[in-house]
């Protein structure tokens, strides 16, 4: 076998390997771009307050407790507003639709949607706890981080005794 023929085979393999690596990198980049568009990040009201203003097209989830006395039904009869709190910061939420049966003030909630230019969270979906022992993990973690978890557990224990 001649030396030039061996070099050309090595060069061919190098080109094919380079092409395969380039194709894999392109496929990975496309996959990550598609994945990034479908990811919805979770924020507590405090984390949201610490962030720079969100773009209106960025989907996110917020979670916390529905503040007592904050639930209001607007004149159109379909839209409600309420405040989600983690006991340090509050976020005003607007939601058009039917709230879950278990939604009520003083309970844990997770809302998915986007921030509007006025700084109000516009929810497209609202999730409420489904029994007396469950609170969404993100909400519980945010309350634990803020130091208010024990207060919530004490209130729940009191409610169960009554």
Automatic annotation (TrEMBL):
<dbReference type="GO" id="GO:0017004">
    <property type="term" value="P:cytochrome complex assembly"/>
</dbReference>
<dbReference type="InterPro" id="IPR036127">
    <property type="entry name" value="CcmE-like_sf"/>
</dbReference>
<dbReference type="GO" id="GO:0046872">
    <property type="term" value="F:metal ion binding"/>
</dbReference>
<dbReference type="GO" id="GO:0017003">
    <property type="term" value="P:protein-heme linkage"/>
</dbReference>
<dbReference type="InterPro" id="IPR004329">
    <property type="entry name" value="CcmE"/>
</dbReference>
<dbReference type="InterPro" id="IPR012340">
    <property type="entry name" value="NA-bd_OB-fold"/>
</dbReference>
<keyword id="KW-0812">Transmembrane</keyword>
<feature type="topological domain" description="Extracellular">
    <location>
        <begin position="35"/>
        <end position="162"/>
    </location>
</feature>
<dbReference type="GO" id="GO:0005886">
    <property type="term" value="C:plasma membrane"/>
</dbReference>
<feature type="binding site" description="axial binding residue">
    <location>
        <position position="134"/>
    </location>
    <ligand>
        <name>heme</name>
    </ligand>
</feature>
<keyword id="KW-1003">Cell membrane</keyword>
<keyword id="KW-0479">Metal-binding</keyword>
<keyword id="KW-0735">Signal-anchor</keyword>
<keyword id="KW-0201">Cytochrome c-type biogenesis</keyword>
<feature type="topological domain" description="Cytoplasmic">
    <location>
        <begin position="1"/>
        <end position="13"/>
    </location>
</feature>
<feature type="binding site" description="covalent">
    <location>
        <position position="130"/>
    </location>
    <ligand>
        <name>heme</name>
    </ligand>
</feature>
<comment type="similarity">
    <text>Belongs to the CcmE/CycJ family.</text>
</comment>
<protein>
    <recommendedName>
        <fullName>Cytochrome c-type biogenesis protein CcmE</fullName>
    </recommendedName>
</protein>
<dbReference type="GO" id="GO:0020037">
    <property type="term" value="F:heme binding"/>
</dbReference>
<keyword id="KW-1133">Transmembrane helix</keyword>
<keyword id="KW-0408">Iron</keyword>
<dbReference type="Pfam" id="PF03100">
    <property type="entry name" value="CcmE"/>
</dbReference>
<comment type="function">
    <text>Heme chaperone required for the biogenesis of c-type cytochromes. Transiently binds heme delivered by CcmC and transfers the heme to apo-cytochromes in a process facilitated by CcmF and CcmH.</text>
</comment>
<keyword id="KW-0472">Membrane</keyword>
<keyword id="KW-0349">Heme</keyword>
